[in-house]
Request: fold
Amino acid sequence: MRQTITEQALNMFKTHGIKAVRMDDVAKELKISKRTLYEQFVDKEQLLLECVMLNSDNSKKIYEDFMSKTDNLMEILCFFIKYRLEEFSRYNSLFFMEVIKYKPVRDYLEDISKSRVKEQENFIKRGIEEGLVVDNINFKLLSRINKAAIDNLIRDKVYEQYPLSDIFRTFMMVFLRGILTEKGQVEFEKYIVSNLK
Reply:
């Protein structure tokens, strides 16, 4: 029951935003009583946190499953970009504006982001070793620049003017073309650009 509630609520939050979805709406959609819902989740904040955790776990499993099938760096990168583009196309932009208002969720997302920094650094180091990424990158500075750019996009509510998928696509294209070597650029064109047109 708890899993079913979480999955349904996640879809509703993604589609309508968080504020627009009440606990009553979740109960009605699942055809269960409010009492049953509150027996599983104390409040909307707890439900939202579990939704975000479920979404993060699902994404991680999908990435790990794909990476178990190939060790080609550009194929992995291409898959990541395509997956994120498909994900963002399913989100109402209000979700990202509203989710950061919930401290437990914001803290969880910040912890996840920090835990992924090492994975990203290892990915770039491998890219350098394979001659795909330039070797003069200050990774800590790069991470801070990326975070500042994302924070500014959220603060300036750019998502109100452009689809999330367009923002992500543009960000990734600019970012990757800035760190790839000539060899990396060729691989990028081969594995990624044709899939993003």
